[in-house]
Design brief:
about 425 residues; alpha/beta; Helicase, Ruva Protein, domain 3; Rossmann fold; Arc Repressor Mutant, subunit A; 3 domains; two-stranded antiparallel ribbon; globular; DNA-binding
Amino acid sequence: MQKKSGGIFKELLENKQIFKDREYLRPSHIPENFPHRDEQVNRLARIWVAPLRGETPSNVFIYGKTGTGKTATVKYLMEELEHVAGDLSREVEVAYLNCEVVDTKYRILATLSNKIRETLVGEIDDVSDLPEKVPMTGWPTDEVYGTLLTLLDYRKQVIIVTLDEIDRLVSKGTSDVLYLLSRINSDLDNTKMGVVGISNNLNFVSDLDPRIVSSLGEEEVVFPPYDANQLEDILEERSEKGFADGVIEESVINLCAAHAARKHGDARKALDLLRNAGEIAEEEEAQKVTTDHVTRASRKIEHDRMEEAIKSLPDQSKLVLLSVLLLQERKARKIGTGDIYEVYSSLCRQHGWDVLTRRRVSGLISELDMMGVINARVVSNGRYGRTKEVELNVDPLQVRSAVQREIYIQDLDSLPLSKQKKLG
DNA sequence: CCTCCACCGGAAAGTCCGGTCG
DNA sequence: CGACCGGACTTTCCGGTGGAGG
């Protein structure tokens, strides 16, 4: 078995490579070309050329569903902007915040202020008269705001702040920070700030204070979803850089694009699918990536997504799901809400957990149905009442492994059910 | 045609919890 | 620090219902 030393690596190296550089196939990669986004790129560039002239750029709202290239486009333009500003020795700073991660007024102001402090520290000699770093918690909010103002005004510059997933702020009720930012320029003497809001949700403006909308939404740029042909162009471009020459069949890209187009024109999904197909092909040392690999990649992604969803379920929902599993393993007969509740409640008692109400469990069953983990439909058994008929919609083994971590799975037969259902 | 089972599912009130404000 | 707030999760309450059996 053992070959001469290093043999195993040499062998792998000599195999035909599927990938040239898989970084190009990751959604996080920021390309230089944005197929079918000329209009958006041009409009944004026209707005963001302002700081190069020392002017304040208009505030912009950018809308578009996930995977329409909003974030990548903005990040790319911001990098370019910094670049050119450097060449022209203009004082232009950019800051990017994701409101999904940084989601409170305090944290936004603190993060922003620390970022600006950091760039200053890198550029000036005497750091001693800068305000100190804002801790992640503890200060009064207006003190953080004051620090931010001091740092911003430390020298003359133009700064563009990007707030990605800005709609999260509205749904978390922290949109007042937007009001603060929208009028920050009146508190500043040297620096001018422009704000970019990126939103996945087209309607989020309607839940926003009109004052914020009028000042932050000076310009609006919409990123529509890609259709299948456009996705194909994107995949084509990426795969040329990411995959080795000739390993991709034309129909493969076609299929990936079609899959993703059906699912809301999400370029991220399309890329994930293509890359996963490549990884499967690589794993089995195939010479080419085929449509079969795509199909399997699609299944794998779906499988992983489901497993992730089940794992992140609240414990109570897991128990409900587990009850369905146990019932189904035991008897393939119709499973009704009552059956589930019975098993569920004895599982709860078994683990010493609170037992939720029937009403709640009924709701949880509906939620699991929405997720697609189970199928539930209401049926009437006439004389014998009305109930949801439930069946598992995923591999039972998958449920077991996803649920097992925190729940000790016991055999249904050894559970002390309150009453044994009709026998034979 | 009426009954009545075994639930469904909307509405509203209650509980918890993390975060914010004074 | 305690009062207060809003959101997520639950419970309580309850009117509603398709159809087998009478």
